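User: Could you check the structure of this?
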Amino acid sequence: MSPSAEQWAAAVAAVRSAGPDDEVLLICHVNPDGDALGSMLGFALGLRRLGLTRIRATFPGDFTVPDPYAGLPGLDLLVPEADAWPDPDLVLIFDVASESRLGGLADRLSAPRSVVLDHHASNTGFGEVRLVDPRAAATSVVAEQLLARLGVPLDAEIAECLYVALATDTGSFKFDMTTVAVHELAARLIATGIRPGEISRRIFDSRPFGAMKLTGEVLGRAILDPAAAGGRGMVWTYATLSDLERFAQPPYVLDTLIDPVRSVAEADVSVVVKEIGAREWAVSLRSKGAVDVSGVAVSQGGGGHRLAAGFTGYGEVRDVVDAVRRRLDEFLN
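Assistant: Sure, the predicted structure tokens are below.
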């Protein structure tokens, strides 16, 4: 269900109540992707256009901005978790489905005003004002709609952030959530003068040589399980911290690994398991449409969408994959 008129009005009122001396904190999820960073920074620039000056944007955990997003406008507003306002007057949360994804910043939800902007169907319903639209292709769609209601016109800097967010969460406009409205929004963003070809090359078509070699090795260990997912097929692979160390690559280079894995014709479900600590794994799940992977993710303490979800798994890599396979069979039966 989309946000109601009352929820939109409450969000507008919360933002407009911020005075020039108020501390405004914007937060997105740990290990931010293009939608999280793009939505947050685009909206932060919009707040600056409204005349607010005490604005900080952040995310929990390691303060590393992936190289593809290192040129985004608004990065001057981004600070490490330790430098986030400790007692902000207004908090805005972007692309976060549950409080656990806020890490050590979850206590900021006790601010006098909080607004959550998200598009995950698995959103747990936290925050004072919730703008959660599972039908939106990206959180940037929700962010743009709130900016419009606030009377903030799109300029090239805001548009670039929102376009990056929209393009990444729609898989460069090829996923099922790519609707007429998505293309209409993309057209409005491009009309500000941004260069989509240049942005796409930076975001999708530029990788270090070491990352390419790492991807090749990890894809080489992929396993196809035709009987999994009720006979619809599952393909999976994994990457370890030692893989990253051997090729001298940061963890975020694995974020797009799911894309070539999900292209396997014989499997509806694809799984990529990435080591993030001792016996701890970040698990990415994708479906081509026959299977709802969000239920599997939620049952394991994660969340996401019907066709794209994830969770944190524990144990050996085989333990994690076997748990996914069992859950898939349970949900399908």
